[in-house]
Write the structure tokens for this entry.
Amino acid sequence: MHDMNPDDIVGDYREHTLTFQDGSSRHVLVTDIESPYPDGRLIVSRTDPAGIITQVNHSFVEMAIYSEDELLGQPHHILRHPDMPPAAFKDLWDTVQKGEKWHGYVKNLRKDGGFYWVLATVIPNVRNGKITGYTSVRRKPARRKIEECIKTYPTLF
Amino acid sequence: MPFQLTVSPDFTPDHISGWYIFNTWLQKALDEGVHLELYNNFNDQRSAIQSDQVDLIYANPYDAAMLVREKGFLPVARPGGVADEAIIAVRDDSPTQAVEDLSSGIRIAATDDPDVNLMCAIMLEPAELNAENTQRDEKESYPLVAKAVIQGQVDLGFFLAEAFNSLSGVTRKQLRPLVTSQIHIIHHALLIGPKLADKQQRLSELLAGMSEDPKGSGVLQSLGFDSWVKVEEEEMEFMIDLMDTLTYQPA
């Protein structure tokens, strides 16, 4: 996965290096600009069992700013924001690999360095008793819940 | 004993005769006797499904998981270019401008349409409203939901977008959509039961070709559809997974 490109960033940014569970890393550029979650939408994506994006809907593309072509074939952590504690994603993977649904509030990173908050549910796609991939559906979260996360997430690093 | 076709009870009343016309077409297509049974509500229809009386169903997406994963139904087709969308509407003169303006204790008028109620419940979540801190007043039809909102008996109403847009101009003028879903991937589908499973492929093909055929296009018109589109099993499974994620209610 490519590092983020300064030419894509809107506004002043900070630099971070993220290290993922698979040992890979990415240089990301982050601004303080929040994009509000649009009313009435669901952001939907699917991945293969390894977390590689296989399908995204229009709302996903619109919020993440990446084109569909830029997203397909990439690991889902292309959206990973440095403010998200890695423990949240460990919990996600531990839960869905057991065949269970995972729910959580997630701060996602956009291609332009901005962010948006979602309430995410990830469900394993079980076909003939086997997990063939995962579907993630995000919806608009309550602001009070986001404020709680803003307080608690920094304590989880 | 003929096979039984039934239709999700949320179909628009204007299309009752269309379903009878479709049933006649279906009997010829399958070369089988098929009886159309229309249930008054979702509970009655679910009881019939549980007792294996139903062989073909134009199903609400909310019931798809039960039909496919528990009762062994297979997807056949969905109407082309049509998705289930929902609208939360308030009275036109309501001071409420956004979902976040709403607070606990509000009164809601809704029908028993399960996918619409689910989508609308999700659209209320940003205000932390749920079944526990709102009052639900169930109505038999969308015009009655509209009436309850207009008369101020409730603060807002849940509508199937298609039903909202079918209300008379006078009624719609007295209502204001507060939020409209744009989900695009939740839709009704025609499903075929285990006793007719060997006819799934043939029926899918016949339905997909219906808009090309002069007689078939007349049947489609009476149903209010442009076409039928074949639904693959994985597409149906995907929608079932998606509906499953929506049943989660944040604490």
Chain B has a mean pLDDT of 95. The interface with chain A takes residues 98-100, 122-123, 125-128, 179-185, 234, 237-238, 241-242, 244-246, 248, 250 of chain B (CB under 8 Å).
